[in-house]
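Summary of Year 1 activities. Much of the first year was spent building the evaluation harness for sequence design. The harness presents a backbone, in tokenized form, and records the residue chosen at every position. We chose the following record to illustrate the format because it has been used consistently in internal testing since the harness was completed.
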């Protein structure tokens, strides 16, 4: 635990010391936040990731939206939306929606569960550290932007065809965005590193 940490604000080097849960360490020179020890961060992120997976399932299987045109109404689920664009020959759009709304959220939640679930039981699966590093590197490119990108493009494209009424899956996506942001906040990356390293050493 005795490693040096640089202040992100003024670059002052201080020695890292263990903190009681819920406390944070501030830079002695400029007062910037150095790191914090979140209360039950891994447990919280784990619970949120599980809920996220259920929400993603709902988002994929429940009606995403209803299209209304000339008194007719048609419900569209995410997958049928992808199929719709494939059918119209808009491969790039279909691919964008598939990757941003299905594949990437699944990969990110899957990666978190893969790392955190064994860690909760003081275990570690192969490549957990690499997978966590990859997931962490991808996190500035957060799910919010990813969802918005895929969602906006499809809504604009579908809007050319008909009036759109959001369905259950659309609300599930909104909840998923909030839950993912919460999980990111609950997790202190340094905590995860320390625990991963400890499980390797022990
Ligand atoms: Zn400082």
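For this record, the design step produced the sequence shown next.
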């Amino acid at each position: 635990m005795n490693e040096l940490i640089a202040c992100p604000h003024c670059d002052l080097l201080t020695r890292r010391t263990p903190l009681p849960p819920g406390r944070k360490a501030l830079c002695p020179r400029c007062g910037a936040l150095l790191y914090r020890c979140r209360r039950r961060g891994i447990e919280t992120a784990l619970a949120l990731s599980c809920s996220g997976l259920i929400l993603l399932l709902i988002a994929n299987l429940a009606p995403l939206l209803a299209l209304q045109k000339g008194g007719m109404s048609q419900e569209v689920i995410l997958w049928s939306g992808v199929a719709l664009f494939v059918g119209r020959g808009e491969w790039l759009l279909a691919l964008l929606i598939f990757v941003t709304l299905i594949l990437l959220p699944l990969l990110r939640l899957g990666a978190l569960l893969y790392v955190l679930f064994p860690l909760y039981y003081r275990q570690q699966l192969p490549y957990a550290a690499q997978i966590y590093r990859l997931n962490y590197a991808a996190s500035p490119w957060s799910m919010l932007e990813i969802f918005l990108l895929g969602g906006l493009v499809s809504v604009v494209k579908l809007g050319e065809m008909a009036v759109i009424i959001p369905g259950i899956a659309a609300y599930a996506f909104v909840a998923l965005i909030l839950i993912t942001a919460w999980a990111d906040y609950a997790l202190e990356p340094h905590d995860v590193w320390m625990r991963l390293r400890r499980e390797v050493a022990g």
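Residues 7, 9-10, 12, 27, 29-30, 32 surround zinc ion (CB under 6 Å). Quantitative recovery figures across the full test set are reported in Table 2.
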